[in-house]
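It is worth pausing here to work through a concrete case rather than discussing structure prediction in the abstract. The textbook approach is simple: state the sequence, then state the predicted structure, then interpret. We follow exactly that order.
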Amino acid sequence: MASTSGKLEIFNMALGFVGTRTIGSPNEHTPEAIQCELMWDRARRSALRDFPYRFAVRRLRLPEKMMPEVYEQEWTHCYGVPDTVLKIVRVHDGTRRGMRKTPYAVQRGDEGEIILCDVGKAIVDAVVDVEDITIWDEAFVSAMARKLACLIAVPLLKHNSSKVQELAQLYQAAIPVAEGADASESYDRKLDDAWIAARGGW
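Step two, the predicted structure:
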């Protein structure tokens, strides 16, 4: 779990970006503390999805599932995705050659998200939800504070739309550069290489 002191520091960083008063404890019954706590989990998961920070990337072998009939003509294998996985970075077979380029698709099944691909015994590199602040890197702490500021600004500032827009731009500036990034969860080797280069290697 996140440490109280680390959480308080990020709360106050976010409040500083918003321009409101800071707090002395995450458990204060003030609008500022209440909104920070309310948006904490959402901000963390959202920020982690926006870039594959190295501390949050895990290599996993996922359980194979029954292929939905509607995809049988398109893909050969179907895998389940644990709730802790926020974003798939790539799907491969664990070999260097297999990691070069593996098409896949992430879809919503009857029992949650599934990965469709043509790889048997597939392995994924995925971004997972990391709640422990002590292992967050500095780049993510900064991004997290700015993301939190974006989410708490509307309820705290009411109708100050210009400030909300300013905070959104501030958050975008904190995301490491990833050339060619797209919003879909399909694999692209150029995107992966750019992410790796931006992080200084895996």
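Step three, interpretation. The longest helix spans residues 138-157. Residues 178-202 have pLDDT under 50 and may be disordered.
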